[in-house]
Design goal:
The complex is a heterodimer of chains A (about 120) and B (about 100). Chain A is mostly beta strands and about 120 residues long. Helices cover about 0% and strands about 50% of the residues of chain A. Chain A is built from no helices and eleven strands. In chain A, the strands form two sheets. In chain A, strands 2, 4, 5, 6, 9, 10 and 11 form a seven-stranded mixed sheet that branches. The radius of gyration of chain A is 14 Å and the shape is globular. Chain B has about 100 residues and is an all-beta fold. Helices cover about 0% and strands about 45% of the residues of chain B. Chain B has no helices and nine strands. In chain B, strands 1, 3, 4, 7, 8 and 9 form a six-stranded mixed sheet that branches. A three-stranded antiparallel sheet of chain B has the order 2-6-5, with no helix packed on it. The radius of gyration of chain B is 13 Å and the shape is globular. The chains are: A mainly beta (about 120), B mainly beta (about 100). Chains A and B meet through β4, β5 and β10 of A and β3, β4, β7 and β8 of B.
Chain lengths: ~120, ~100
């Protein structure tokens, strides 16, 4: 069985940073790009970027550039999303998702999703 | 690059629901569909316009023609009540539609 298991909920103050982890199992970790997607309450799905676990290459959408870092640890089959300078607008559920085709183009969609990590920003 | 979906669609139980996704480049790119229920992770329903992942019921089907992709649910069931999102690859980015809330009456 293929799984992506994410870290638990986070409560942060404005201006703080958060780190969300996503651990893969059941498949060859380095063979599939991972996307990060978030959903704020009452809003739709918002794509944040992708990461190639093999090379460490990332692409972060313009809305998050300079504030978001994506990392991987192949020894742990894990990826990490780090976000700085948090505001209330960053309160959302964050998902990692596997690119089914293995690359970044989502030709076959995102077929495996983590359970989501809820991040709440509140003073 | 934008994907446009109707905010809401209503359908009577047992009837056919159609959810559209339009955009300038929809006809030139593959569209994927996801179902999202409250408290759950998105579920891939359709990829490459019309292909169903294993485990997805046959009542779900997809098409993509003339700038509009359509997700069709035949014999809609109460359990199909959810938000539905189309998604495609833009020039360098992943694009999601705004989502459609399906209500089963």
């Amino acid at each position: 069985q293929v799984y992506l298991v994410q870290s638990g909920p986070e409560l942060k103050k404005p201006g703080a940073s958060v780190k969300v982890s996503c651990q893969a199992s059941g498949y060859t970790f380095i063979n599939f790009f991972i996307h990060w997607v978030r959903q704020a309450p009452g809003h739709g799905l918002e794509w944040m970027g992708w990461m190639d676990p093999k090379s460490g290459d990332t692409y972060i959408t313009q809305d998050f550039q300079g504030r978001v870092t994506m990392r991987s640890d192949t020894s742990l089959s894990s990826l990490y999303l780090e976000m700085d300078s948090l505001t209330s607008a960053d309160s959302a559920t964050y998902f990692c998702a596997r690119d089914a085709e293995g690359r970044k183009y989502t030709l076959d969609g995102m077929d495996v999703w983590g359970q989501g990590t809820t991040v709440i920003i509140s003073s | 690059y934008e994907l446009i979906q109707p905010p809401s669609v209503s359908v009577s139980s047992g009837q056919t629901a159609s959810i559209t996704c339009s955009g300038d480049r929809v006809g030139n790119t593959y569209v994927n569909w996801y179902q999202l229920k409250a408290g759950q992770s998105p579920l891939l329903l359709m990829y490459r316009d019309r292909r169903r992942p294993s485990g997805i019921p046959e009542r779900f089907s997809g098409s993509n023609s003339r700038g509009t992709a359509t997700l069709t649910i035949s014999g809609t069931q109460p359990i199909d009540e959810a938000d539905y999102y189309c998604q495609a690859w833009g020039s360098r980015t992943v694009i999601f539609g705004g989502g459609t809330r399906l209500t089963v009456l």
